[in-house]
C-alpha cells in the first residue's frame, strides 16, 4: 500500500467508526485541530491511563500533578519561550502561502523551495522571519499589553514552578519526579499529517529531579523505561528507533536529547523526546521570581539545585502510531477484511455481544451479559442489527478484540461463542465464565 493511501484510509476509518472527527466540521473545519469521538476518547483514555499507571501508580518516586494552562506570563520569559520559541517563517510573494523555512525540503513540504506546493512554479520566497509559536490572549476585561497571557506550549513549566510544593507536601527526596498529562498549544506554521502535528494537543510529560552528576545515569534509565512503554502498547519493535541529537540540534535548555521515533506512514518522525535539561529551568525561575528553589537534603547536610531529566510524549502522536501500527487489510476467504489489531488493553470496546437472531429469547440473554460486563467496567457493545458477518466487520474496524455470540445452543447448555479478532478462532465458553475469561485477556 502506498504511504499516502494508508493515511487516507486511516483518516477515513477514524471518521467512519467514530474515532476522530475534524473540529467544527459543519463549518468547514478549523486549522488543524481534531475532535475525539466515542471510540477515540476511549482509546485516548486507555493510552493515558497506561502512561499514568506506569509513571505514577507503579512507582514510589514519581508524583502526579495537574497544573493550569494559563500561567503568570513571567514563567514564559524565564523559560525562554517568549524570546526563543520561534520557527523561521517564509512566505511566497506570489501565492502568499507560508512555510517553515527549515522544513522546505523535507517530506512535510515535499518540494524544493523553488517549487513548493503552490499552484505555480514561479514562486518567490521572501526573507525568513522568526515567528513565535505561543498563542497569546488576554486575562481580564482589558485587552492591553499588561494583561497578555499565553496558552502553555508545554506542561513542563507547571511542574518546575511547583517543584518545592510537590516535593515538600509529598515528602519526597531527590531523586523524584513530577508527572503531568495535559493540553498544550502551539501555533504551528505547518501543521498536518492528521493528528501528528496539530495546534492543540495533549502531552504526557515527566520531570525527574536528580542530583547533578547523576543525570547521565538517570537519562539512560529513563530512555530504557520509555522504550519499554512504547513496546507495551503493542507497537511493533521494527517501527521504533532512537535518534540522538547532534550538538547543532540541541534545544537551548538541553545538554543531551534523544528522540524516540516511530515509522509513521509518512516516514520516521519523533514520538517522544527525552531531555537532560540540567538546572536550566529551575535556575531561570529562581532568577526571574527571586525565590529560592534549592533542594535541601537535611540528612546529608547539603543544598543544591537539581538537574532535570524530562520524558515528553505526545498523546495524540502516540494514538497515531498505535492506529497506524494496528491497521491491516487482509483477505479472508476471498473477502477483504479491514482490521485494527489493537492491544486488548487499549481497545475502546473490549467485547461486542450479539444475539444470533432477534427471537427465541436470545436478545434478552445477550443484553443481560452486556449489562453484567458493563457492571464489571468491561466496556461492551450490544449489537443485534444486520447479518452476523456485518456485525463482525464493524467490530474488526473498531479494533474490538472479542465478539460473543448468543445462539440456539446457549439456551440449552449455557455456553456462548467467543470469536478472537486476530486468529478468527471461535471457542465455546460458559456464560458464567465469560467475565473472568475477558478479564484475563484485557488487563
Ligand atoms: P517537533 O520537533 O515534532 O515539533 P518538539 O521536539 O518540538 O516536536 P517537544 O517540545 O519535545 O516536541 O514535545 C514533546 C512531544 O510533544 C513531542 O515528541 C510530540 O510527541 C508532542 N508534540 C509536540 N508538538 C506537537 C504538535 N504540534 N502536535 C502534536 N504533538 C506534538
Explain what you see.
This protein has helices at residues 3-16, 38-57, 74-78, 81-84, 156-161, 163-170, 215-232, 280-289, 315-326, 362-375, 388-398, 408-413, 434-442, and strands at residues 20-22, 34-36, 62-64, 86-91, 98-100, 129-132, 136-138, 148-150, 176-185, 200-210, 240-244, 256-264, 267-278, 295-297, 302-304, 307-314, 327-332, 335-340, 351-355, 380-382, 402-406, 415-420, 426-430. The protein has 443 residues and is of the alpha+beta class. The protein has two domains: 3-72 and 145-323, Bira Bifunctional Protein, Domain 2 (BirA Bifunctional Protein, domain 2), CATH 3.30.930.10; 349-442, Rossmann fold. Strand 4 and strand 5 form a beta hairpin. Helix 2 (38-57) packs across helix 9. The longest helix is centred in the N-terminal third of the chain and has 20 residues, at 38-57. The protein starts with a helix and ends with a helix. The relative contact order is 0.12. The chain binds adenosine-5'-triphosphate. Residues 154, 186, 188, 197-198, 201, 203, 270-273, 312-314, 316-317 line the site of adenosine-5'-triphosphate.
